[in-house]
Structure formats: structure tokens, C-alpha cells
């Protein structure tokens, strides 16, 4: 230690334990895992959308068939009425 003439106080510092604590930080969520999870979620939601899209097409086709059947039934009934009126007259 270096002492000079103006030194009035000497301080000695002692550690109670001579132990070194090493702290390491690691990523809790790696970028590969993030990309994988985003891809999984997109696949899940887009898959569900495709199924829903297919169901909507099926619904439209069913409604179109029902409307077509109803329209054709009216034409058949009108033709039957006209045929029966001509038979009566």
C-alpha cells in the first residue's frame, strides 16, 4: 500500500466469503421456437378457415338446390293447373 504523510486513516476491506457468483442469461424463447409457433398457429387457423370455406360452399349449393327445386315445383304446378283448365274447357 502507498502511504503518504497526509494519511490519517487506513481502511482494510475483507470479504466474509470468498465466493464468486456467475450469472448467465439465456433466451427463454428462441427465435426458431417463435417462428415454429407462429407457423403452427397459422396452419391451425388457415386449416379451420378452409374447412369453414368448404362448409359455406356446401351451404350455398344446398340453398341453390332448394331454391331450384322450389322454382321447378312452381312451374310444374302451374303447368298442371293450365293442363287441367284446358281439359275442363
Automatic annotation (TrEMBL):
Cellular compartments per GO CC: plasma membrane
Primary localization class, coarse: membrane
InterPro entries to which the protein is assigned, alphabetical: ENaC
Localisation: Membrane
Keywords, ordered alphabetically: Glycoprotein, Ion channel, Ion transport, Membrane, Sodium, Sodium channel, Sodium transport, Transmembrane, Transmembrane helix, Transport
Single Gene Ontology MF annotation: ligand-gated sodium channel activity
Similarity-based family: Belongs to the amiloride-sensitive sodium channel (TC 1.A.6) family.
PANTHER family, per database record: AMILORIDE-SENSITIVE SODIUM CHANNEL-RELATED, PICKPOCKET 17, ISOFORM A
Protein name: Uncharacterized protein
Organism: Dreissena polymorpha (Zebra mussel)
Amino acid at each position: 500500500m502507498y502511504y503518504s504523510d497526509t494519511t490519517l486513516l487506513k481502511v482494510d476491506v475483507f470479504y466474509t466469503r470468498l465466493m464468486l457468483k456467475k450469472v448467465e442469461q439465456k433466451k427463454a424463447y428462441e427465435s426458431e421456437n417463435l417462428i415454429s409457433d407462429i407457423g403452427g398457429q397459422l396452419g391451425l387457423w388457415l386449416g379451420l378457415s378452409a374447412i369453414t370455406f368448404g362448409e359455406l360452399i356446401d351451404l350455398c349449393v344446398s340453398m341453390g338446390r332448394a331454391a331450384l327445386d322450389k322454382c321447378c315445383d312452381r312451374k310444374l304446378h302451374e303447368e298442371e293447373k293450365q293442363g287441367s283448365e284446358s281439359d275442363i274447357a
